[in-house]
Amino acid sequence: MPLTIYGSPFSTCTRLVVLICKEKQIPFNFVLVDITKGEQKAPEYVDKQPFNKVPYIVDDDGFALYESRAIARYLIKKYANQGTPDLIPSDLQAEALFEQGASIESFNFNPPASGIALEKIVKPLLALRTDEKTLERRLVELNEKLDVYDVILGKQKYLAGNKLTLADLQHLPHGTLLFTNGCGDLFTSRPNVARWWNELISRPAWQEVTTYFNPVA
Fold this sequence. Notes:
Blueprint: E1 3-7, H1 12-23, E2 28-32, H2 43-46, E3 56-58, E4 64-66, H3 68-78, H4 92-125, H5 132-153, H6 166-169, H7 172-179, H8 185-188, H9 191-201, H10 204-212
């Protein structure tokens, strides 16, 4: 039985895991968890993911794992010899630069990007009021971070050097959410970021993810 992903098309973390499966050419089954009905809080779900989040996976040998970044790393290492190569480099220094790039995404991009998505996209969908001050603060923060990205990407092709890694791909789920909901200038207004971003969103694997989750995407 192939890998099984338990997730939601509305979840950016689910999309990251599916993206890695597409990049690494990993067959998978997808089990929909309807988070709008609270299915992630069911006892049988919490048994696998105690924080009531999506996604989690069950591998073909019964191994279960949650947290999307951990899942991505596990799949990349397990299927190192197929699909897109070197998403996590094996060379010591290249791996260190990858870890640096992954940390940049986790601690400099993701917090403001997810904060913007919450205020600008998620709250309106839930008929909740947007906190305009928080939204503005998060936008200022992400603009400042992307100014630094533009400097880094002016010196190298990708965040961890001149080869694509998971550090770059981790930006796609939240970045695309912002890009398609009125925040495209965050990416297009900086030449080096724009070049990098356009390459990422044009990747066949990401296009497959978008198609896979239509019409939600």
